[in-house]
Amino acid sequence: MDIITLGELLIDMFPAEKGKRLVDVSAFIPKPGGAPANVAVAAARLGASTAFIGKVGQDFFGEMLRDVLQQEGVDTRGLRFDADARTTLALIAQPNENNEYIFYRNPGADQRLRPDELDRDLLSNTRALHVASVSLTDEPARSATFEAVRLAKQSGALISFDANYRPALWRNEQEALAQIAAMLPHADLLKVNELELELLTQTSDVEKGSALLASRGGKLIVVTLGAQGSYFHSASSKGFAKPFQVDAVDSTGAGDSFVGALLTQLIKHDKNNLDAQLPRALEFANAAGALTLTRRGAIPALPTASEVREFLNRVLPKIGVLGVDEE
């Protein structure tokens, strides 16, 4: 298996209208979602073999989500069904450039994945495992996540971690910071956005913040910067990957598309020697994220490999090359 993702698989309830707060939206439209599941589909559409590990309710939404993953070519042998909890719902509003969320998850089935339910054979035979902080909010999913990381790392897999901070899902900010900090030393790749970088480091300076995260155990730090592209920091190099300008329709899933695309490029190489691959890998990931912005929804908006290649062939001569600084 190329890439396994573990975490939440849920229903995103998209607003019928943009520009309104949650309390003012007239209706919601159900779409498949959940950041780790989005990453699995993103990577599958880009040509990687992927699998998903997680838990959904034994209900209509849970069965629909399983079917969506299977239709996208994602292996679902690690998916579990819970007869005592419902599939998690996330209600979304888009009043401005930042989405509003309310989660119906108290508890949701995704929180109830147990360590003994993990597919250990699957985790012992993958090139990369991707997890995010949402599965660290509650037990037993928290323990299951750390155990999955242990198993995959033991077998030599690249460990990818997305901070993906959702304040509404944590009891308090301090607990979130503690759990993210606990996972950081296990991660070969840490992905954060600008707000998460500042939350974790108390600085908005991407170079200083990335260096701080690296000093706390992160091996490769990648910061997504929205319209400004992305930035990376490793032991021997750092630099910016230039953005691609598109007419944005919906930001949901763009970060997951970015991660899925980045992982498809990184797994082709030795995880202990990724620096030389980073500029082109980030260029590819930025392009995948940009294309996702041009469509509505998370999974429905994710591009294929041919779409990303066509996009890059069309725009690269106009924007030039990446800037990379060697240490």
Distinctive features:
single chain, 10-stranded mixed sheet, disordered C terminus, alpha/beta, 327 residues, 35% helix, UDP-N-acetylmuramoyl-L-alanine:D-glutamate ligase
Verbal overview:
This protein is α/β, with parallel strands linked by helices and 327 residues long. The chain has a single domain (3-7, 35-85, 113-315), classed as UDP-N-acetylmuramoyl-L-alanine:D-glutamate ligase (3-Layer(aba) Sandwich), CATH 3.40.1190.20. 35% of the residues lie in helices and 23% in strands. The protein has ten helices and 14 strands. The chain has helices spanning 35-45, 60-71, 120-123, 141-154, 173-183, 194-201, 206-215, 254-266, 278-293, 305-319; strands at residues 3-6, 10-15, 28-33, 50-57, 75-82, 89-93, 100-104, 128-132, 158-162, 189-193, 220-224, 230-233, 237-241, 323-326. The strands form two sheets. A ten-stranded mixed β-sheet has the order 5-4-1-8-9-10-11-12-13-14, with helices on both faces. A four-stranded mixed β-sheet has the order 3-2-6-7. A hairpin with a 6-residue loop joins strand 6 (89-93) and strand 7 (100-104). Helix 8 runs antiparallel to helix 9. The radius of gyration is 18 Å and the shape is globular. The two termini are 34 Å apart. The model is unreliable at 319-327 (pLDDT under 50).
